[in-house]
Design brief:
The protein is mostly helical. About 80% of the residues lie in helices and about 0% in strands. The longest helix has about 30 residues.
Length: about 230
């Protein structure tokens, strides 16, 4: 191992950080919205619960890499899709990676949100009803804020998982951190140094995300701390 080579490799790998973060936050942002909708749909009716259970079973029970391949390579085999408006999105590796990551994290996130919803104190819901809140207002002002506060620590772990899962986007020729690492290894055959640098970058990003989630959690729970 030479420090000069590792410094040069580290500098090149940093060029993939913006794409890694873009994939992470886009997929998590879309996934959060889908997760909340799925969690609400699961409690709305029996057919809705069956649909969500099937969705969660499929996306949690199959490998993420297979899901990426099915969306990017599989859907393009259908002529109806290739001649539809959806092909504008599905022919792009970046868009397919975001879709696959978002659908995957939505399955895990819906279970996290569902746990948060079940942790909402019944007394808070009853207080809202006594105050005359409608069902929509009750969810917007009481149930969802409390549920998301309860689910935040677990969702922080899911964000970290998504950060590391973006490495699979390299199979679609996206040059995020892992994609650049593979390219450097193919050019230099020095896998140890390259992967050490890539691992260090992922560790720093994970630490930053974990710290940000902890700060947000403390901010949301500041009213619970003793004066």
């Amino acid at each position: 191992m030479t420090l000069g080579f590792m410094g040069d490799a580290f500098a090149q790998l940093l060029g993939g950080v913006p794409l890694t973060l873009e994939l992470t936050f886009l997929s998590v942002g879309i996934g959060v919205v889908l997760a909340v909708l799925l969690a609400l749909l699961r409690g709305s009716s029996r057919p809705g619960a069956w649909f969500v259970q099937g969705y969660v079973f499929i996306f949690r029970g199959s490998p993420l890499l297979m899901q990426i391949f099915l969306i990017y390579y599989g859907l393009g085999q259908f002529a109806a899709i290739r001649h539809s408006f959806a092909w504008v999105v599905l022919r792009e590796p970046f868009d397919c990676a975001v879709i696959a990551l978002a659908l995957n994290t939505a399955a895990y996130g819906s279970e996290i949100v569902r746990g948060g919803l079940r942790a909402v104190p019944p007394g808070a819901v009853e207080a809202g009803r006594v105050a005359g809140m409608s069902r929509v207002l009750l969810y917007r002002r009481i149930i969802l804020p409390l549920a998301l506060r309860q689910a935040l620590p677990a969702y922080g772990n899911e964000i970290v998982v998504m950060l590391k899962s973006t490495a699979l986007a390299s199979v679609l020729t996206l040059m995020e951190v892992t994609g650049i690492a593979y390219r450097l290894i193919s050019e230099t055959y020095r896998a140890l140094e390259v992967f050490l640098c890539a691992g260090a970058i992922y560790l720093v990003l994970t630490f930053a995300i974990t710290t940000a989630v902890q700060m947000l959690e403390r901010r949301l729970r500041r009213h619970m701390r003793p004066a």
